[in-house]
Amino acid sequence: MITVAVTGALGRMGSLIIENVGGAPDMELVAAFDIHDIGMPVGAGTGAGVAAGAGDVRVSDALLIDALLASTSPDVLIDFTIADAAVGNVRAAVDNGVAIVLGTTGLEPYQEEIAEIIAGNVPAVIAPNFSVGVNVFWKLLLEAAAYIGDWDIEIVEAHHRHKKDAPSGTAMRAADVISKVLGGKELVYGREGIAPRGDEIGIHAIRGGDIIGDHLVLFAGDGERIEIKHQAHSRQAFAGGAIRAARWVMDAPPGIHGMEEVLGL
Ligand SMILES: NC(=O)c1ccc[n+]([C@@H]2O[C@H](COP(=O)([O-])OP(=O)(O)OC[C@H]3O[C@@H](n4cnc5c(N)ncnc54)[C@H](O)[C@@H]3O)[C@@H](O)[C@H]2O)c1
Fold first, then answer.
1. How far apart are the CA of 179 and the centre of ligand 1, in A?
2. Domain span including residue 173
3. 205 burial type by CB count under 10 A (0-12 exposed, 13-18 middle, 19+ buried)
């Protein structure tokens, strides 16, 4: 049995992860953390409703994460919170020898710190997008960039009105993947006023309604264009991938791994 702790337990992703853990015959939820509604049954947050199979686990105060990881000894911590919080949660997991699945995005300012904390201490899977489709999408971008990298490239992403960071981690990874193939590219975020196109990748973020997550990469040439697009229909695309990563990370060597390793891409 894989024992699991979840941070961001009352969030859209956290509550769905808890529901998935509850439905997995090989997993058991042993701790759940958030910063509000401490003591309430887990899963009763903004996401999937009261999580089935969450047992009698209640929401614990995230401030107590260190002590509670020590007393509940989970095998893996799954974190979908905010970047500021994720760093402390990663530290608590490492201090307690707990493997990590980290889905929180907007981690760019903390990337080095997180890498230093994890180092060779525990196995961790960190991915800005846990969906199988998006990981294949990144792979398709690699191939397209190798053939038509001299075309104009624009990335457009759309998410729900509550998403805090922009552009999305998935869009940034798409830019990174393409830029690496092309030996480095300037990134231009939105355009305004007089903004002639240079040798750049344009990145645009749309926020509205309940859009789960759309990513479009446009390769525009003279007289033709190719659009590579991924659309998430439900957050289960991410939750399912995170659960898969939690199983995989149990047998992984210490250090940071990507979802492409989990999926064998
Ligand atoms: N990697 C992926 O596949 C993927 C997919 C979807 C969302 N995300 C990312 O996951 C994160 C969460 O997304 P969401 O839509 O669930 O957001 P959300 O706002 O619905 O949930 C975040 C939860 O974290 C809680 N929280 C904040 N600080 C905390 C702390 N210190 N300890 C514990 N809990 C804390 C909040 O109270 C909230 O309940 C975001 O960064 C989002 O971009 C990643």
1. 28
2. 132-231
3. middle
